[in-house]
Design goal:
Order of helices and strands: EHEHEHEHHEHEHEHEHHHHHH
Largest sheet: 8 strands, parallel, barrel
Strand content: 5-15%
Structural class: alpha/beta
Helix content: 40-55%
Strand order of the largest sheet: 1-2-3-4-5-6-7-8
Number of helices: 14
Distance between the termini: 18 Å
């Protein structure tokens, strides 16, 4: 079937003219975990090396910077461990760092152990893998995010292994890092991280690691989808250590905060929500918390839809919305993960995003959604 051509995009189309970064947001540090754009013309397979469209991928980072957001690079939104291998992630980090320097954009980059095989790595192997990636991110001039490691979760026998390994990495880090607590709702292989299946015990281990290395931890990214636990952890962090919410269900109230503090943001949902997210935080910068909530609260229904179980497949909806918004010319993902969500799920994502006014060119978005329906044989749906 030959799909009809897209209507001509508007001259105001944001992806057509990447801009220099706006002044950064003041009251909160806000990082959008950005997706990668696959090369749809590459000859590859779901288990082969990732083929990336570098021009479109980097143009999307400029879109995020143009709104004043920072970019969290090579995170799970970019399909680390789900189609994007370490070789491609390393190239992504190097390229994004060069672009960030060119526009003064804020950049943090994921440090992991995904160059190792999935099974059988020793603790020494894990440490060496972390060191390799940490060195690359630091050489690129980005802030490191020490991502949770599947290999460490498999190799560690208890909290002491986490304390020793993270302590080693923090002692050699050239600048403060962001630690990352990614819960099993995002990745079942990370169950029992920090050495215990009891989240209270895991919290104590994490806090002990932070307390043992003052000045070496910028913050903790908390991705547990448990707002109460995040708030309790946030209140126990040392004053110099920030909490970055990774909670795509409760982000408005966590970012707004309370009388005892607030969370910064490092969120996958801010990939498609960059314009309203930036607008909301600028209201917060001006002291208008009610205005912040009025802009951001209505976006939660879309986020909860995209991140519904199995949560790890949220990336499919993220890429769909990027295509519908005109940030890329196709709905193709590395690893073939465009097939990871059902047609009704994708249709609902379009409806919710359209209701929020997220599409710069609603006609283009509607045309592309109709084209997708036709591919599924559901033209009349």
């Amino acid at each position: 079937m030959n799909a009809p051509a897209d209507p001509a995009p508007s001259a105001a189309h944001p992806a057509a003219r990447p801009a220099s970064a706006r002044p950064p947001l003041c009251s909160r540090t806000v990082l959008a975990a950005a997706h990668v754009v696959a090369d749809p013309h590459a000859v590859t397979t779901p288990d082969g090396p990732a083929a990336v469209d570098w021009d479109a991928t980097l143009a999307f980072r400029h879109h995020l910077w143009s709104h004043g957001l920072g970019v969290a690079e090579a995170m799970d939104t970019a399909q680390r461990g789900a189609g994007l291998d370490w070789g491609a992630a390393a190239e992504l980090i190097r390229r994004s760092a060069a672009e960030a320097r060119a526009v003064g954009g804020l950049l943090a980059c994921g440090v992991g152990t995904d160059q190792l095989p999935p099974h059988g790595a020793s603790l020494a192997d894990v440490r060496g893998a972390y060191e390799e990636q940490l060195g690359l991110v630091e050489d690129a001039g980005a802030r490191p995010v020490l991502m949770a490691s599947r290999q460490l979760a498999a190799a560690a026998t208890g909290p002491e292994d986490y304390q020793e390994l993270y302590g080693h990495l923090l002692r050699q880090a050239a600048r403060p890092v962001i630690l990352h607590w990614l819960g099993p709702v995002f990745d079942p292989a990370l169950a029992g991280y920090w050495g215990s299946a009891d989240p209270d015990a895991a919290t104590e281990t994490l806090l002990a690691i932070i307390a043992g290395h003052p000045g070496q931890v910028d913050g903790v990214k908390v991705s547990l989808l448990d707002a109460g636990r995040e708030v309790r952890l946030r209140r126990r962090l040392p004053g110099t250590v920030r909490c970055y919410t990774g909670d795509d269900f409760h982000y408005p109230e966590l970012i707004a905060g309370d009388d005892h503090g607030f969370s910064e943001a490092l969120l996958g949902i801010f990939d498609p929500l960059a314009p309203p997210a930036a607008e909301a935080v600028r209201l917060l910068d001006a002291g208008d918390t009610a205005g912040f909530r009025a802009v951001l609260d209505p976006t939660v229904a879309l986020s909860r839809h995209l991140f519904q179980a199995p949560t790890r497949h949220y990336k499919t909806g993220i890429v769909l919305l990027a295509w519908l918004a005109g940030h890329q010319s196709h709905f193709t993902m590395v690893g073939g993960l465009q097939s990871a969500r059902s047609l009704p799920h994708l249709r609902r994502a379009h409806e919710l995003a359209d209701g929020l006014g997220l599409f710069p060119d609603p006609e283009l978005a509607a045309h592309r959604m109709r084209t997708l329906l036709a591919v599924y044989g559901a033209e009349d749906a």
